C-alpha cells in the first residue's frame, strides 16, 4: 500500500466512485456486442418459438431412445427369421 496517499482512502465516497469507474471501463463487454442481453432473451417468455418444459423434453428423449431400441430388436428378429 502506498503511504503517500496516491488514491482516495478506502471506504470513502471518492473510493467508491473510482471503483465504479474502474468496473465500467474494464468490462471487456465491447467485443461481445451486448450478447448478454440477447442470451437472456432465450430464457424469458418474450422469446419466440415453441415453449416446452424440461420434463416434456426428458420424456420425449427417453421415448425416442426406447423407440430406436425397439426398432433394433425388431430388426434383429426379422433378420434371424429371414435366414431360417
From TrEMBL:
Biological processes per GO annotation = post-translational protein targeting to membrane, translocation; SRP-dependent cotranslational protein targeting to membrane, translocation
Q: Which residues cross the membrane?
A: 56-79
Domain of life of the organism in this record? Answer: Eukaryota
The Gene Ontology terms for molecular function here are: guanyl-nucleotide exchange factor activity
Give the principal location in a single coarse category. Answer: endoplasmic reticulum
Q: Name one GO cellular component term.
A: Sec61 translocon complex
Its placement in the membrane is given as: Single-pass membrane protein
Question: Which keywords, in A-to-Z order, does the entry hold?
Answer: Endoplasmic reticulum, Membrane, Protein transport, Translocation, Transmembrane, Transmembrane helix, Transport
Task: One Pfam family, please name it.
Answer: Sec61_beta
Q: Does the keyword Endoplasmic reticulum apply?
A: yes
The compartments listed are:
Endoplasmic reticulum membrane
Q: What does this protein do?
A: Necessary for protein translocation in the endoplasmic reticulum.
Family of the protein in this entry: Belongs to the SEC61-beta family.
* Database matches in PANTHER family: SEC61 SUBUNIT BETA
Q: How is this protein named in the record?
A: Protein transport protein Sec61 subunit beta
Identify the gene encoding this protein: LOC107816002
